[in-house]
Specification:
Blueprint: E1 3-7, E2 13-16, H1 22-31, E3 39-42, H2 48-59, E4 63-66, E5 72-75, H3 87-95, H4 103-110, E6 112-116, H5 129-137, E7 141-145, E8 149-153, E9 162-164, H6 170-180, E10 186-190, H7 196-207, E11 211-213, E12 219-223, E13 231-234, H8 239-252, E14 255-258, H9 269-275, E15 281-283, E16 286-289, E17 306-309, H10 321-328, E18 334-338, H11 349-354, E19 358-363, E20 366-370, E21 382-384, H12 388-400, E22 404-408, H13 411-414, H14 420-425, E23 430-433
Parallel strand pairs: 2-14, 3-13, 9-10, 17-18, 21-22
Antiparallel strand pairs: 1-22, 1-23, 3-5, 4-5, 6-8, 7-8, 10-12, 11-12, 14-16, 15-16, 18-20, 19-20
Helix pairs in contact: 1-2, 1-7, 4-6, 5-6, 6-7, 8-10, 8-12, 10-12
């Protein structure tokens, strides 16, 4: 188990480039299974979860060629279906949440797929019903073996249909879109997720020959085609990294410029940080955060306490609430953080309380943060990263704190953030991997 040793309390300075978007990468990589022709993908982040998915695709028979620092060519012209019956596949599938998105492409193109219950962060219930109910409506036949192994197949081609999703699941929508593009007839998906990453997937599929209308809305209409061709695709920068770096700058009183942010795709993220009193300057497509000694949380017009909550797009992504909560601990004022989607994501606040933060954990979904206004600094402690986002939130807290912190289980952070220790050290952070 690797650890980070952090000596906090030092302001940082410089420029940083966000990695490619992890959540987009997991969808886009699974889509290469839809065609036998080459697909070139660039701006792929070099992180553990993405690398594990690339390894899984390679072991399934997909030809993988690295042609640049962040660019790969994939060709799924000889997929080994028998590999799905091996113990190695079961082990890989269990270790990676994103493996669930091979179901749609494999069922559409090859008529069958199977998968153990995928792994991922332990942040609460993450049911797969949206995926399987939708695939069954398209004609898939699902068999459950034991409590956690799924087989799905179809007699002939999938058939287009109308479906109203029970939740606007991003991965569920991605799976169903990838299945529907090769189905016979027309598929209508209502209450579809419409995050920028899902839009990116749809635009890539259209370039491959798919027919998709309503991209960017929650109503997608897909006319199935016989086959798809190859294409080239460049992924967006990771909006969660961008938000993390904004929070890092505010907490440490640093002057940081985040380069090439694709600001138009960030939704409510910049304005949410502004509600915490953080100054942001847009310079073309860069975000500049000037050094701030203090920042003050807004209130509502009637003076009542601000609530920041997550929601499906275009609401605020739940992946940033851990960062926002940490940033609020050193603001002036009080804010209620309401994590609606996952019931275990706020359980890391006990570490922040141990560091000196004033937080009331109201219940598994809500925490009230009373900001210290930097009058009292957090102090370093030893702690463990529970998941990707909480791990980075704790890292930001440690970089702002007085003294030495040690964060264990940083493999969790590595799953979502590319070379984070080296990139922050380049900004002046006193951070080393143990």
């Amino acid at each position: 188990m690797a650890s980070f040793e952090v000596i906090g309390g030092q302001p940082l300075k410089g420029e940083i480039i966000p990695q490619g978007a992890k959540n987009e990468a997991l969808q886009i990589l699974c889509a290469v299974l839809l065609t036998a022709e080459p697909v070139t993908i660039s701006n792929i982040p070099d992180i553990r979860d993405v690398n594990k998915l690339i390894e899984l695709l390679r072991d399934m028979g997909v030809k993988v060629g690295k042609i640049g620092v962040d660019t790969y060519v994939f060709q799924a012209d000889d997929v080994h279906l028998d590999y799905l019956d091996t113990e190695a596949f079961v082990t890989q599938g269990r270790a990676l949440r994103g493996s669930v998105m091979i179901l749609g492409p494999m069922l559409a193109r090859f008529g069958k797929c199977q998968l153990p219950r995928p792994g991922g962060d332990k942040i609460g219930r993450r049911p797969l019903d949206t995926h399987f109910v939708g695939l069954e409506k398209l004609g898939g036949k699902l068999t459950l073996e034991g409590n956690d192994f799924y087989r799905i197949s179809t007699d002939g081609k999938l058939k287009g249909t109308y479906m109203l999703l029970d939740e606007a699941s991003v991965t569920g929508t991605a799976n169903l879109v990838m299945a529907a593009v090769l189905a016979e007839g027309t598929t209508t998906i209502y209450n579809a997720a419409c995050e920028p990453y899902l839009q990116q997937l749809c635009k890539m599929l259209v370039r491959m020959g798919a027919k998709i209308n309503g991209i960017g809305s929650n109503l997608l209409t897909i006319e199935g085609v016989e086959s798809l061709g190859g294409t080239e695709h460049r992924m967006l920068p990771d909006m969660i990294e961008i938000g993390s770096f904004i929070g890092l700058a505010a907490m440490t009183g640093s002057e940081i410029t985040i380069k090439n942010c694709q600001i138009a795709e960030l939704g409510l993220i910049p304005d949410t940080f502004r509600k915490l009193g953080i100054q942001l300057e847009f310079r073309d497509d860069d975000i500049h955060i000037p050094a701030q000694e203090h920042y003050e949380i807004n209130t509502y017009l009637d003076g009542s306490i601000l609530t920041i909550s997550d929601h499906t797009w275009p609401g605020l992504t739940p992946d940033l609430l851990s960062i926002i909560l940490v940033v609020a601990t050193q603001a002036k004022g009080t804010v209620l953080i309401h994590q609606k989607m996952f019931e275990s994501r706020l359980f890391f606040v006990d570490k922040l309380i141990d560091m000196g933060a004033q937080i009331i954990l109201c219940d598994p979904h809500r925490a009230t943060v009373i900001g210290l206004d930097k009058r009292t600094r957090l102090h370093g402690i030893s702690m463990t990263s529970p998941d990707i986002r909480a791990g980075v939130a704790l890292l930001i807290a440690a970089l702002s704190a007085e003294g030495r912190s040690v964060i264990d289980n940083v493999e969790q952070i590595d799953r979502g953030y590319q070379n984070i220790d080296k990139r922050l050290t380049a900004l002046g952070a006193q951070l080393r991997r143990l």
